Amino acid sequence: MTENNNFASDLAFLDDKREPMFATLQDWCAINSGSSNLDGLRTMHAALSEAFAVLDVEIETVASKPHPVVTAAGEKIEMAVGDMLRIVKRPQAPVRVLFSGHMDTVFAVDHPFQSGKLLDDDTLNAPGAADMKGGLLVMLYALQAVENSAMADQIGYEVLINADEEIGSHGSAHMLTQAAKRAQFACIYEPALADGTLAGARKGSGNFAAIIKGKSAHAGREHHLGRNALVAAAEFVAGIDKLSGGREGLTVNIARVDGGGPNNVVPDLAVVRFNVRVAEHDDADWLLERAGALITNINAHDGITAELTGGFTRPPKPMTPKLLAFFNALKAAGEDLGLAIDWKPTGGCCDGNNIAAAGIPVIDTLGVRGANIHSTQEYAKLDSLVERAKLSALLLLKIAAGDIPNPGAIETMETV
Known about the structure:
This protein is an alpha+beta fold and about 425 residues long. It has two domains: about 10-205 and about 315-410, 3-Layer(aba) Sandwich (Aminopeptidase), CATH 3.40.630; about 205-315, Alpha-Beta Plaits. About 30% of the residues lie in helices and about 25% in strands. The protein contains ten helices and 18 strands. The strands form five sheets. A six-stranded mixed β-sheet has the order 1-4-8-5-9-16, sandwiched between helices. The relative contact order is 0.19.
């Protein structure tokens, strides 16, 4: 720590918290909170409510909107998702921060990855350990350190923990946008890389399903009467795949094709699912125009109908002047802790994309150091629980004290 502040005693609150944080992380990872497991999400919601109550805050359960889904049968339905947890304290304080995280994981209740194990004294392999139950703990303990400091009255915060981030945040994005408009800047607790590198600029993302219908017929006796939906789908797949690279950084990933059946039946249905990543906002319009033209061409085939569903739900998050200022503020806080803070652009996306689109700077990888997320090899580095909690706490304290600029107030800096 440098000598120009007196925050060392505030951060000392966290010095002996590694073991209780580790114990809680094990408990939370043992709760299956896959995005579709509503019972598990309710259990996780209750555990988080109890844990965050230590902050003496207003706690509210907020219903999420249903998630639109296209089934393998080509039906458009709405799927219920878990409720959000909203926590508020001192909303009129001079420094106003949005904290965001998610309680859901990608591991369904029937997924084989349900329990954790130590790989070594500092590495926990467990579902959600890095993404992002470890991050939620970092957030909680950072706020506890703030509450135990003399600067607490200067810092107001709103915490939103949603239950559908891993499936696109369709049901919670509106709440994130509203909360962002009440804050000056935002902190999100997705994991950093194992070496501590953070995500800087992020690509935007869209998820789509093309529903293609034809006409079934006997493949031998009346093949000529059939209209093969899979053949039309193959044409669409070839066309949409060729759009990858059509704009710099734009990628199209064909993820799944549902349809078909017995060899002696002309298939009358196919559903093509794909994801698109874009670096710039205009790229989304470019993609939608060309995807629409492909759908129009498919619809021109005799006996074939095609419909494109879905859309872009994660706008690109560029490195704006305010975001760069925020990273530099974090870098300054890291230097006081002996941490080298670095960042780089990524094709991944998260709720940080949506919050940034609301107009405030957001750093969205303030959680634990870890790796191999979304796989059975996911791990979190346990020493980073306290390390990253201190980093967030010090960042807030230094901003509240005026030692580093409030990133929401910065207006002039060269965009990188």
